[in-house]
Every structure is written in C-alpha cells, then in structure tokens.
Amino acid sequence: MLDLFAGPGGWSHALHVLGVRDVGLEWDEWACKTRARAGQFTIRTDVAMYPVWPLVGRTNGFIASPPCQAWSMAGKRLGLLDQPLVHQAVADLAAGRDTRAKLLTACKDPRSLLAAEPMRYLHALHSAGDPEWIAMEEVPDVLPLWRQYAVILRGWGLSVWTGILNAADYGVPQTRRRAILLASRTRTAEPPPPTHAQTAEPESLFGPGRERWVSMAEALGWGATDRPTPTVCAGGGPGGGPEPFPSGARKTLTDARDRGTWKPPALGSRSGRSSRRTRSGRLRPPDSDTLVCTCGQHRWSWSLRSSNQANATVRGVNEPAGTLFFGHRANECMWVAERHSLEAEEESAAPESIRITATEAGILQTFPADYPWAGNKGQQFSQIGNAVPPLLAAHLLAPYLSKTLTRSEFTLAA
Q: How large is the average pLDDT for residues 338-363?
C-alpha cells in the first residue's frame, strides 16, 4: 500500500484500524516524526523527486492526497489560476512525457503541480498491472482534475468514481467536504453508503437508515443535549458574582485550556471546576478555587469559531465543526461562549474566547485522543488541518480491502 503525501497518518491510521499497513512518502519533518511515533512506515522524501521504478510490480493499493494549500479557500487559491498547467502536466505524464520542469516555471504557486504527481506514479505502475485500487482526496475545487484522471484510468481498464463527499455523512464530527477519486481493477468503483445525516433517518425498505451527524460535544465527551448549556461562572461559591472571571480567573482558565487540561463541564452539571489529572489518570480539582460554575443565574452555550474573520464558520457544540484548517491561523480557531441569562435585565460579560487544543482538533478529525503529535503547537495544528480524517478514510478503503468497518473498531475519542 503506497501513500503519497502521507502527512501525519490519516490514511495510515485508517489502514491500521482495518488491519493492514502502508508505506508513506512524506517530506515534512514533523509529520514524519509523528508517523514514527505512531509506528507507521515512512520514507522521508520529496514525492516529486522520488523514483518510481522500485515500486513497480510491488504496489497493490495507491493513495494520494496532494497538498491543498494552493487550492484551499483558506489560502490565496493560486492553484485555480494554475489549473490549465496542471491539466497539461497530467495529460503529458499519462502519455509518458515529463514536462513538469517547463510547466513549473509558469505556475504562480509551485505547489499547484504537486496535484499532477500521482499520474507520474500511476503511469509507471500501470505498466506492471498495478495498482489494484486507487484512492485520492483533495479540496472540492480539484474535482475537475480528478475527472481528468478518471478518463485516463478508464482508458486503462479501471472502474472509476469521482465526486464530493461530506465527512459528516460518515460519522466525522466535521462538515468537511472533499473531492474524492476511487478506482479499481477488480470491482465497480463507488462511494461507501453514508452512515449519518443532518437529521436521523429511520431504517426503511430502501435502506438501513442513518444516524444523526456526530456533534463536537459527543466526540469530545462533553455531553450533548438539544440545547447545550455549559456554564462557567466565578466567585466564592454557588451563585458566583456579577463578573464571570474576577481576580485573574480569565488567565487561569486560558492557561488551563492551553495546557489541554480544561474543558467545559458536562452539559447540565452543577460543577465545572477546571481539573487536572493525577498520575493515576483520575481527575482532581485545581489548586486554586477560583473557577466555580453555576446553572442558576448565567448560562453559556459554547461554539467553535473557525477564524477571526467576519465570514468565519461558527458552530455550536451540539453540531459538527466546520472544516478545520489551521496553518498561520492556528491561534484563530477559538471556543466562544454566548450568554443566556435567566433574567433579561441582568448583564454580565461573556467568558473569554479560548483556543482549541491540538488534542481537541485531532479528535474532531477522528484521530485518537492520545495520538502522538510531534512538534510545537503550530506544527501540530498544521499537521491536523492537512490530514485526512481517519474515519472517512476507513470508510473509503474498507470495501477495496474486503473489510467491514464497525463502530466498535473505530472509536472517535479512543
């Protein structure tokens, strides 16, 4: 199983859950270190420079998720301007002509041409009848390119499906839409049947039914109700005071969040003190007694805001997250609280916005809570934002590996 642009292991973790292993090609130092910590096979290399001949006749499965920064709505999207050049590179590589160097000089973003790299490998592998199956993933704007790949692959005798899938339809607590290409030499290529929907669908004569989309609260273990109301107030005891975070409690809460040790209380609970874990793993209250929650006078509903821009996606914890992207915006993805006072005339300030932690972001991508991310916060967030959600990857790959994916095999926050 060959995984181009393997990143921190989204596809690899899915394969591990399904009981098989892959070899990932990846250039980023910290993604490679994460993969090493996770026990994944990795060759640190530039995918555009790596020779294909050692892989010919030895590759059964082929996975590729080229870097999306040139195409993503989170960036300048120069890949859209370079798209004709990328299409030309794919056509040339499919015919055995390597014009990458010439075309690269005309690209406005040098990363754009990386989306053509899978064809260099596929052309060489096809000479030996490889691979048996192919799975590729990118941002939605790359779908026209996947359709070009599909025409070529069908000409080589493969069955191919391309389209846009929403990760939330497969149990990922995130409405992440991606362009997918699936191809096979041995079976009809088609997307896996969705397991979830925005509104739960009962079983019927036409299908097994679908569960409701998984919310952030459910994935993170914060509890979930129709109207979540995590409450965080401050003061010396139940009832708190008019100011939610007096006496430096704002900094205490923010520091706890940055350490990854604080989370909103279980919805509906009467105690929401910041907590830490002992060596035995049990929760214990903090040394300071400054954070006290009450459900009596103030209620707060927590949401995740994707960035500090005016058009940022904001989702309540009882919904899936929007598409997680980080990079230079790692510190802009914040938990924000909206006040719901039980007395209309009562006024108080809302809790300070709090940065999402790498652990939380990883869980919302369906990585295990203890996934061994390497690097500093920025490096970890970059890996997480660029990764394929492992749960989505597992659904995509299971049919081509003759596997059946069950919920017990893939726990969101294991």
A: 70
